[in-house]
Amino acid sequence: MQISPRRLVAVAATAACLASVVSTAATAAATDPASGSGTSVAEAPDTSPMSTPDRDPFYRYAGTTPLARIAHGTALKERAVTLGLATAGTPLPAEQILYRTTDAVGKPALSVTTVVLPVTGTVAPKVAAYLSFYDALTPLCDPSYTQRGANPGAANESTALIEQGLVEGLRAAGDIVTIPDFEDEHLDYVAGTESGKSTLDGITATMSMLKLGNATPVGLMGYSGGSIAADWAAELAPSYTPHLNLVGVAMGGIPVDLAHNLRYVNGSASWSDVMPASMIGITRSFHINFGHYLSPYGRKIVAAESHECIGQFDGAYPNLTIKQILKPQYANVYRVPIFRRTLNKLIMGSAPGHPAEPMLMVAGNVDGTGDGVMVEQDEQQLAYEYCHQGIAVDFEQLMKLNHDAAGAAFFPQGIAYLTERFLDLPPVNTCSTVTKGNSLAPLR
């Protein structure tokens, strides 16, 4: 399948910004006396031929202690690997960790994070969690696989190359970069609470492997699918991993209330194909028998998308509607109790407590509603709520930019924002200009 025209625009725009990203980040690192880490990965890189994650024994737990008796965030295995970063002149050594995490209903799960050490090596480490927009229902696009230079197929290759460059930008800024496969072993796409926990557990495992203290500053950066992990990690950290010292979050293209996103893209020429994919990921995480609710046409689409990444299903089903996917009696998903309860659990800002660290939040607005898939007034309302909880928020609305173009604009800002947080500079705070947006009240 060919890459859709809207994604080709994003590829070109993002590729054009990468040279600036790396140059800016490297300059910031050079002027920061506290950049880098004295920690090193001692093992020789794994040079064996790559197996896909579903065939690679490293992704399997073979211990005798049941996972339920192992603390979340525990590193279960480690290995040295070589990455194939797009902007690196030579192969880059890294470390991968298999760790124990938790799915949306509290069951143990497994995931892998990839750890890259910074260009510089001094005495004050800082950890940047890069949260990928890999948007996958198959392990072929796991960051732990694609960051090693593996080819996820022609339809997804451009995304993988872009993200390799973004990781290099963070590394050039002097950060230890950890890149968790936050959709976990079963590829639970869009399952926010699981993605947030997996992100935090990947960071915890990284810090344990590198023997970093709890005072080590940690930043989060994610766009689109990565923003799901970033926001939920920030939401859940105070109760789930209170030991982590989160100092800043940079996120953009944020699906704040999935019920609102569903209304926005339903029947859309460009983004309706994400509806079945999102529902697959969510029902996997919450252990819902999705097949029971599907129409014959819905079963056909789900059978295809269940083994694809976004590059493959992007643009495959233009103008798709939820009524086409579900049986007639379930077509109003907001009245189906299991769907209503699940959508309510995934409204951002709904976790008990709230984040404490400063945030950069970037929202595109191409049509007066949003960027084509994310609802700008939802993003604004989330920023408004965070502001009124005392968080320093820099909320930026990018007028006339669609989702992919806004992403290209976000990436250099995100790297610069984390660099400023690691330097302990005063955060930009635009809360005085942020007004109320849409209600984020749960469905009744």
Notable characteristics:
444 residues; alpha/beta; nine-stranded mixed sheet; 13 helices; globular; disordered N terminus
Apparent shape: globular
User: Which range does the strand content fall in?
Assistant: 15-25%
Distance between the termini: 40 Å
Largest sheet: 9 strands, mixed
Question: What is the ordering of alpha helices and beta strands?
Answer: HEEEEHHEHEHEHHHHHHEHEH
For the biggest β-sheet, the strand order reads 1-2-3-5-4-6-7-8-9
Extended strand count:
9
Round the mean pLDDT to the nearest integer and report it: 89
Q: Measured on Cα atoms, how large is the radius of gyration?
A: 20 Å
Query: Spans of 5+ residues with little confidence (pLDDT < 50)?
Result: 1-47
Number of helices: 13
Helix/sheet category: alpha/beta
The helix content is 25-40%
Question: In brief, what are we looking at here?
Answer:
The protein is an alpha/beta fold. Helices cover 37% and strands 15% of the residues.
Question: What can you tell me about this protein's structure?
Answer:
- This protein has 444 residues and is an alpha/beta fold.
- It contains 13 helices and 9 strands.
- It has helices at 5-30, 143-146, 154-172, 192-209, 225-240, 258-265, 274-285, 296-305, 310-313, 322-325, 337-345, 376-388, 403-422; strands at residues 75-83, 92-102, 108-116, 127-131, 176-180, 217-223, 245-252, 359-365, 393-399.
- The chain has a 9-stranded mixed sheet with strand order 1-2-3-5-4-6-7-8-9, sandwiched between helices.
- It is globular, with a radius of gyration of 20 Å.
- Mean pLDDT is 89; it is low at 1-47.
